[in-house]
Design brief:
The chain contains 9 helices and 6 strands. It has about 260 residues and is an alpha/beta fold. It has one domain: P-loop containing nucleotide triphosphate hydrolases (Rossmann fold, 3-Layer(aba) Sandwich). Strand 5 (about 135-140), helix 6 and strand 6 (about 170-175) form a beta-alpha-beta unit. The longest helix is centred in the middle third of the chain and has 18 residues, at about 140-160. The termini are close together.
Amino acid sequence: MLMEKEPVYLAFSTQKGGAGKTTLTVLVASYLHYVKGYDVAVVDCDYPQHSIAGMRQRDLKLAMEDNHYKALAYEQFTRLGKKAYPVVESSTERAIDDAERITGQAAFDLVFFDLPGTVNNPSVIRALSNMDYIIAPISADRVVLESTLRYMTVVNDVIRKTGVSNIKGTYLVWNMVDGREKSELYEVYEQVIAELGLHVLKTFIPDSKRFRRELSAGHRPLFRSTLFPADRSLLRGSNIEALTDEVLTLLNLRDNG
């Protein structure tokens, strides 16, 4: 672990709802914590839905009531020797204070923030300015793309260039990529993105129904969970492993796996 270093604050953030920021936060956080051996925490300040905090409640309920998941949790705890990562229900006003409180109580390598999709609120701007890295999911949809590019331009040109932010890097990541779409479309979009001075990660995330698969009474292989990593059979072809490795490289964190 990187006990001697300050934790990295990271947010998958965009102002467009349904872009996948919450799902990516959970998938990457769980993979890093349960597979790669990092100590992570999640601060959920996406009021009022608090999707990740809600997911943790559902996960815990099933894990306590269902013998299958109870056994999985016990096996995982025994193997890893570490508990589930904390999910803190917060607000944009309290986000940084809550993060400092939990990182003052235990050592963490990364703290993920699930932020609301707006930049017209002083508390959101304060939270964004305290991130070390911001990664915005984008899709090949003109409305989504234009909205996200405006959002990231504000982050870069207004928040980051004030000189009082902690932001070290901002990136875009292609999400919900339809394999049937021609790559030329993405090349055109990436030319526009490059002209704006923004950077796109090499890894893209395909569009797949597996991203919505949570713990279930039927014990189907799970993908999205705050208590367990994605099932190996579903992880293949999802590019979550590649995305996580690329993020670790960007953050200059060594591989604990």
